[in-house]
Design the sequence.
């Protein structure tokens, strides 16, 4: 059985290992550590099977003009042997709800549109929003609270830790 729960003290090494194994380099794993150290890992969830952490998703604040901050979803990873059974989808759904409950009104992601559309993400360009990384159609936005999406606000900025990462 898979449990989705907030990250707890003591999970950091396991979270690092999930990202280090999931991506070609350790950049994403380090990014999570840096966001956490900076106090910008606003929502951080793990997926657990037994007492093993098999997945993680992090959310950090993003800004657009003078609008109230939203969240950027990144990174997300699930251990290879546990993929394609909806664990990432569970992490994302629970994570987005936690962000909404924490007072964030909108969320962005840089990723595969065919995957993220199922959570309600739409091309950010349709709402007059752009990203710093040339994401094009991969840059998507989701309104979490009615009226909170900062349509037309232009450039969305991720946390500074992403600058070193990109
Ligand atoms: C991307 C990633 C997080 C997805 O994790 P996951 O737990 O396998 O994701 P899900 O199971 O929710 O969905 C993945 C696919 O499996 C499918 N799927 C979900 N449940 C399924 C099931 N029970 N049976 C068969 N397929 C299923 C989904 O439809 C989806 O496929 P699609 O995109 O072709 O429609 C994982 O592959 C990963 O860690 N990759 C490396 C890191 C990475 O690239 N992260 C994303 C960028 S931040």
Sequence:
């Amino acid at each position: 059985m898979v449990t989705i729960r907030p990250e707890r003290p003591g999970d950091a090494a396991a979270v690092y290992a999930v990202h280090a194994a999931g991506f070609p380099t350790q950049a994403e794993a380090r990014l999570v550590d840096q966001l956490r150290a900076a106090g910008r890992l606003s929502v951080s969830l793990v997926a657990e099977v037994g007492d093993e952490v098999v997945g993680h998703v992090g959310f950090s604040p993003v800004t657009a003009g003078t609008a109230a901050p939203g969240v950027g979803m990144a990174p997300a990873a699930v251990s290879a042997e546990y993929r394609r059974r909806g664990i990432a989808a569970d992490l994302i759904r629970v994570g987005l709800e936690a962000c909404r409950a924490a007072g964030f009104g909108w969320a962005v992601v840089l990723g595969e549109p065919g995957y993220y559309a199922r959570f309600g993400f739409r091309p950010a360009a349709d709402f007059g929003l752009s990203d710093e990384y040339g994401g094009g159609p991969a840059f998507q936005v989701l309104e979490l609270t009615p009226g909170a999406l900062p349509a037309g606000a232009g450039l969305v900025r991720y946390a500074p830790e992403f600058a070193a990462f990109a």
